[in-house]
């Protein structure tokens, strides 16, 4: 078995507090993986480390068992095919919804490539299809600042899809969504998995159940349990972590 | 994506064109005529247009990329010095000391050889290229270090201010070889044309107007391109842009360098029209004043920045002539008014009024 993403004994402290503590985790290509854990368990920090935002104090993060991601910066990691959605939805507020998608589309990222870029029919079709998929077609020319919280979540997911990454790291996508939207998001992520690898962090257990995938429980910066949702939620230590706080 | 020449750009360029045609005509009229413009006023108007170019340059990097440079006066001054050096060389043996090989100030300092960095400036094309290249190279190197180390926001503003202050001190020194305190002056002609001749003044004025138009169009072309959208994205959500794979530092360096070159161009056109360049142009307050122009005109509008510069400088001229003590207070008050009541500057105000009139019959206001 060769993992697409392999975290090997990763450490990271903030002012002596061990946010990530000997974390080892392996995800295969095409997997859909849910990561759960109480507040402060280190879920977001784990994503920060994978995407080059935070340097670990120790350990390796291997991409396709060859590239050590901990040596790269954000742009380099992104260009390897790793996309990320933030916990707090982050879109380009003063750009229109369609321009947000356009900027995300998979394309050369250099200054001169974008300076002389001309959009063509294929690109417009792609934008249209993505807007359709995230149901924001009617808000196409609206400034992203005017979207609701849930719509921003969808837009950011759309931007993530536009990048066509091999691995999607999705931090709490369902926050601020209605129940129906939450279920739609779960369906969307399930449909993406298979061709792409998806790692989702979420607190909403109905959402995690709907994902119907392998679950990793993080606690105090390391893996506490792993398995199906039913399996992990039956374990005493997991119950204690969730009820004990 | 968006259009290159929109309504406000079109209106401004049309107005600029009309002024550029009318001013030379009015300046050739009989002195008795009511609309005649005396020849000595032409360089003054040309100077205003140079400031407008400078404002557009700053707006490109501040308004669109969020890089609040408080050192653009330095790029302006460097462009000015490059052309000033050429104009010095063109004086030749007509200086006070009648030395054919050395500018007056070097003779005065007892130097007997031209410093190496003055080589080439006898030749106009070289000086013209340097007027763009020197500010551009400085901005590139400075930006490369600053943006790579992720210096941004207030810290970047402070170090750009330090940059211009350091250059101010350096250029004050006689040993630097740029005329020290007095700077470069007593220019006679450019490319063989006397600088005091009305025709030369008109030519320089028209050239400055063309440069302003060109800078506006270039800046606009950058901002409506996909690269321009990336710049705004960096301004609004830098880390999101990074996680999408854009190298933010490269974009920042690019726009900072282009902007510095525009500032250099403005300085290069300024010096032959005002007839002097001295270290005072590096004064930190100069760079801060540019920010006021842009803020007043409307940040992130390009045309607004140019208008802001013209309005402030015109008011400044009038006040310093009539109430010399009031100017600094007026500038301060202007800044406060803009910050408190006109966050989008003059252009924002105009747009708002127009919008309100157009929307008057509608019951609901659009969300802010
Ligand atoms: N840059 C930082 N500086 C200091 N402490 C940090 C930093 N980033 C994270 N931490 C700390 O590390 C711990 C883990 O944070 P993290 O955001 O990864 O938790 P999380 O599992 O995502 O929690 P939540 O469910 O609330 O999002 C927290 O105690 C947090 O305060
Ligand atoms: Mg988190």
From TrEMBL, chain A:
<protein>
    <submittedName>
        <fullName>Urea ABC transporter ATP-binding protein UrtD</fullName>
    </submittedName>
</protein>
<dbReference type="GO" id="GO:0016887">
    <property type="term" value="F:ATP hydrolysis activity"/>
</dbReference>
<dbReference type="GO" id="GO:0005524">
    <property type="term" value="F:ATP binding"/>
</dbReference>
<keyword id="KW-0813">Transport</keyword>
<dbReference type="Pfam" id="PF00005">
    <property type="entry name" value="ABC_tran"/>
</dbReference>
<dbReference type="InterPro" id="IPR027417">
    <property type="entry name" value="P-loop_NTPase"/>
</dbReference>
<dbReference type="InterPro" id="IPR051120">
    <property type="entry name" value="ABC_AA/LPS_Transport"/>
</dbReference>
<dbReference type="GO" id="GO:0005886">
    <property type="term" value="C:plasma membrane"/>
</dbReference>
<feature type="domain" description="ABC transporter">
    <location>
        <begin position="5"/>
        <end position="245"/>
    </location>
</feature>
<dbReference type="InterPro" id="IPR003439">
    <property type="entry name" value="ABC_transporter-like_ATP-bd"/>
</dbReference>
<keyword id="KW-0547">Nucleotide-binding</keyword>
<dbReference type="InterPro" id="IPR017781">
    <property type="entry name" value="ABC_transptr_urea_ATP-bd_UrtD"/>
</dbReference>
<dbReference type="InterPro" id="IPR003593">
    <property type="entry name" value="AAA+_ATPase"/>
</dbReference>
<keyword id="KW-0067">ATP-binding</keyword>
Automatic annotation (TrEMBL), chain B:
<dbReference type="GO" id="GO:0015658">
    <property type="term" value="F:branched-chain amino acid transmembrane transporter activity"/>
</dbReference>
<protein>
    <submittedName>
        <fullName>Urea ABC transporter permease subunit UrtC</fullName>
    </submittedName>
</protein>
<dbReference type="InterPro" id="IPR001851">
    <property type="entry name" value="ABC_transp_permease"/>
</dbReference>
<feature type="transmembrane region" description="Helical">
    <location>
        <begin position="251"/>
        <end position="271"/>
    </location>
</feature>
<keyword id="KW-0472">Membrane</keyword>
<feature type="transmembrane region" description="Helical">
    <location>
        <begin position="52"/>
        <end position="84"/>
    </location>
</feature>
<keyword id="KW-0812">Transmembrane</keyword>
<dbReference type="Pfam" id="PF02653">
    <property type="entry name" value="BPD_transp_2"/>
</dbReference>
<feature type="transmembrane region" description="Helical">
    <location>
        <begin position="123"/>
        <end position="147"/>
    </location>
</feature>
<feature type="transmembrane region" description="Helical">
    <location>
        <begin position="327"/>
        <end position="350"/>
    </location>
</feature>
<keyword id="KW-1003">Cell membrane</keyword>
<dbReference type="InterPro" id="IPR043428">
    <property type="entry name" value="LivM-like"/>
</dbReference>
<feature type="transmembrane region" description="Helical">
    <location>
        <begin position="153"/>
        <end position="172"/>
    </location>
</feature>
<feature type="transmembrane region" description="Helical">
    <location>
        <begin position="291"/>
        <end position="315"/>
    </location>
</feature>
<dbReference type="GO" id="GO:0005886">
    <property type="term" value="C:plasma membrane"/>
</dbReference>
<feature type="transmembrane region" description="Helical">
    <location>
        <begin position="202"/>
        <end position="222"/>
    </location>
</feature>
<keyword id="KW-1133">Transmembrane helix</keyword>
<dbReference type="InterPro" id="IPR017778">
    <property type="entry name" value="ABC_transptr_urea_perm_UrtC"/>
</dbReference>
